[in-house]
UniProtKB/TrEMBL annotation:
Species of the source: Nitrosomonas nitrosa
Gene3D superfamilies the record matches: Vaccinia Virus protein VP39
GO molecular-function term, one example from the UniProt record: methyltransferase activity
Lineage: Bacteria, Pseudomonadati, Pseudomonadota, Betaproteobacteria, Nitrosomonadales
Protein name: Methyltransferase domain-containing protein
Methyltransferase domain ranges (all copies): 59-148
Domain of life where this protein originates: Bacteria
């Protein structure tokens, strides 16, 4: 919980969906068994096409660290970041040569400004409640260096209460998300939507570049 003082009033904002993080903590072993088997080929294709080779990289919401390890094998210096202690334990066991740290969206308060040229945030932001998404975007942009690239992917849900096994799957409007990134100083490089028939869910992958400072 973070205390915010707004115009003399005290508001308490729940900055993380704790139920989602607890669900990941409680099922970390099972999630690891499943995620180990998955190869996010499309995400790796986007990384190959858009990331700035060899430059520092943050894998925000790294889960079991599979993509951090892939990035590392492909020449990137990478830090895997996740809010769930259980998932981070799995990551450290599976990929002991990689570096993982506990931190959370929307604030990413342990990450310094402009510290990464490449930011991957794959299958994470739908776990934020709607009013945290703009704050998350501000902070994803904050940690990205000028000229750096952000790859963001998220999926929808067919569940009526937007929960699957306790995890929140917020509905994210791509148009709003793109507008928020552009207002924060990014340009849109790529946007695609992929319907995964087997699971009946839609994946959206979007790539942004943080614009270099204006020269006047
Ligand atoms: C579906 S997994 C995705 C893992 C990995 N990025 C991938 O694509 O396989 C979602 C991950 O996001 C993490 N997560 C959820 N909410 C988060 C938050 N607010 N901040 C940081 N990580 C979060 C979860 O703990 C979990 O490890």
């Amino acid at each position: 919980m973070v205390k915010c003082i707004i115009m003399g009033e005290i508001n308490w904002l729940q900055f993380m969906d704790n139920q989602t993080i607890l669900a990941y903590d409680d099922t970390a072993e099972q999630v690891a068994a499943l995620h180990k088997m998955l190869v996010p080929a499309r995400i790796y294709w986007l990384i190959d096409r858009f990331f700035i080779k060899g430059e520092p990289c943050a894998d925000v919401g790294c889960g079991i660290g599979r993509d951090s390890a892939w990035l590392s094998e492909h020449g990137y210096r990478v830090i895997g970041i996740d809010a769930s202690e259980g998932m981070l334990q799995q990551a450290s066991q599976l990929y002991p040569n990689n570096f993982f740290v506990q931190d959370s969206l929307p604030l990413l308060e342990k990450q310094s400004d402009s510290s990464y040229m490449n930011v991957l945030c794959s299958a994470v932001i739908m776990h934020l409640v709607d009013d945290q998404i703009a704050i998350a975007i501000t902070n994803l942009m904050r940690i990205t260096a000028l000229g750096g690239v952000i790859i963001i992917s998220f999926r929808g849900t067919s569940s009526k209460d937007l929960r699957e096994n306790g995890k929140l799957y917020s509905v994210i409007d791509s148009g709003r998300l793109i507008a928020l990134f552009v207002q924060s100083g990014a340009e849109l490089l790529h946007h695609e939507v992929d319907f995964q028939e087997g699971r009946g869910v839609e994946w959206t992958n979007i790539v942004f570049r943080k614009l270099p400072a204006l020269v006047v």
